[in-house]
UniProtKB/TrEMBL annotation:
Single Gene Ontology MF annotation: purine-nucleoside phosphorylase activity
Source lineage: Bacteria, Pseudomonadati, Bacteroidota, Flavobacteriia, Flavobacteriales
Keyword Transport attributed: no
Family: Belongs to the PNP/MTAP phosphorylase family.
NCBIfam families: PNPH (TIGR01700), PNPH-PUNA-XAPA (TIGR01697), PRK08202.1 (NF006054)
All residue ranges annotated as the Nucleoside phosphorylase domain in the record: 22-268
Pfam families in the cross-refs: PNP_UDP_1 (PF01048)
Name of protein: Purine nucleoside phosphorylase
Amino acid sequence: MMKYIKEAVSFLNNRGFENPEVGIILGTGLGRIIEKIEIKAEVSYNHIPNFPTATVEFHKGKLIYGLLEGKKVVVMQGRFHLYEGYTLRDVTFPVRVMHLLGIKNLLVSNASGAINLSFKKGEIMLIDDHINLQGGSPLAFRGVEKMGERFVDMSAPYDAVMNQKIEKIASEKKINLHKGVYASVVGPQLETRAEYRYLKIIGADAVGMSTVPEIIVANHLKLPVAAVSVLTDECDPDHLEPVNIEDIIASAAKAEPDMITLFTELIRQL
């Protein structure tokens, strides 16, 4: 794997991706932060050696490099998922590439459903902890110990310093920011009423189909990471309505300006 990572990094270095300080992974419907970036270089995923290709219609499929709040950033405009047929190693390959490029901090966003019914769609949740329900680990492969500690501690997977900064920014900017536990499932189907009840029982506040693999690999690399969920629907098993993708995208768009504020202010302070 290291050979493949180095090939991708060499390709990106040759196209102007020089010493980024912060990596950003953008979730479904959350691409407008790109408008705040002074773009220096961008490459489609399918041009990068050994990179997967985004297949979801809501994910652009570009790696973007530029300046944001005076910091060099590298941004994944679109991510990868198990439900696209990729492995957990494929899904997390870009995190390893960004790390070798030089990032010192990683920010992750996603669109998710609110299990905690005191949370409403169009609001944001800072992820404080997670539950991995994807049935595997991106670290479960032969030779992983050559890339970092095999038995990675996950007692505090989200960086406390960045989380505290995000909470302070939210307070100062009057952003309604929840904090909770994110459950990651395989998808792509959404959950049944019984599954929503189960998720609530085991302690989830929100559910989605991404993020946790990237967080695990960031911890494997000892890369400080923070993540926020944009809540796009309310998962009330007693009043469940059929999924409406247009409504989900609209809810993401409603919350996106607050997410952009949190990320840009945090980057300025890093």
